Amino acid sequence: MAPLRQSCDEIILSSKRCIPFKFRDTEQNGGDTSKKIVEVLMINSTSGPGLLFPKGGWENDETVKEAAVREAIEEAGVRGDLVHFLGYYLFKSKTLQDEYSPEGLCRAAMFALFVKEELDCWPEQNRRKRSWLTIPEAIECCRHQWMREALEEGFLKWHEGGMVSTINNDED
User: Fold this and answer.
1) Owning domain of residue 140
2) What is the pLDDT of residues 66-94, one digit of tens each?
3) DSSP 13-39
4) Residue 46 in 3-state DSSP?
5) Are 63 and 172 in contact (CB under 8 A)?
6) Which of 39, 60, 116, 142 could be joined to 132 by an S-S link, Cβ 3.0–4.6 Å?
7) Which of 91, 94, 95, 110 is nearest to 12 (CA)?
8) Residue 44's CATH number
9) Cβ within 8 Å of residue 35, ≥6 positions away
10) How far apart, in whole angstroms, are the C-alpha atoms of residue 127 and residue 148?
C-alpha cells in the first residue's frame, strides 16, 4: 500500500473498503422501497473470529473507487455501484507495522456499494464466506470497533438521511 501522508515519524497507509448493501423485501411493504429492509454484506476474516467488509490497497493504474469495487469482487464476490463516500476511518494493523510505520496506522476510505449481482464464483470463494446482515446485526458482528463506527456514523446516518447517491460512477 502506498503512503498517504507522512508527518514526523508517522506514516499513514491507505486502505480501500466498501460496505456492500441490498434491499430485502418484506411482505408488509407492498412494494414501498422506503420500507424495505437494508442488509449489508460482511465476510469472514481469514485470520481470526468476527466479520469484516471487503478491503485492500490499490494498484498503481487504478483509482480509489476502482480499487474498492475490485476488492468487493475479489473478496466478497459481488458487483455493484459505489453510491456514497462514507468517510475516512483510522485503524491500526499489526500486519502493516514496519520500520516506516511502527504503529501500523492506516486510514480506510469507506464507500457504500449498492449490490447488483452476487457471483457464483469469485477469486476468494474458498477462503471467504458471505453473510447478509441487518445493520444492527452487522454492528454486533464487526470484528473491529472502527468498522462499527463506519456503520453507525457513516452508513446508518446516510441511510437515515434518505440514501441519496453522491457519487457519479461515470467519472473518476
Assistant:
1) 13-25+35-163
2) 888 999 999 999 999 999 999 998 887 66
3) EEEEEEEEEEEE--TTSTT-GGGSEEE
4) coil
5) yes
6) 39
7) 91
8) 3.90.79.10
9) 26, 28, 29
10) 23
How many angstroms separate the Cα of 172 from the Cα of each of 29, 72, 160, 167?
36, 18, 27, 9
Burial of 41 (0-12, 13-18, 19+ CB in 10 A): buried
Domain contains 169: no
Per-residue pLDDT, averaged over 34-44, amounts to 88
pTM of the full structure:
0.80
Q: Give the number of domains in the chain.
A: 1
C-alpha cell at 89: 476511518
The three cell numbers of residue 88 are 475516512
Residue with cell 470497533: 145
Measure the CA angle with vertex 26, ends 143 and 52; round to 5°: 10
DSSP 3-state of 159? helix
Question: Maximum Cα–Cα distance for the chain, whole Å?
Answer: 58
| Torsion angle defined by CA atoms of residues 83, 110, 171 and 36, in that order, rounded to the nearest 10 degrees | -10
Look at residue 147 and give its three-state secondary structure. helix
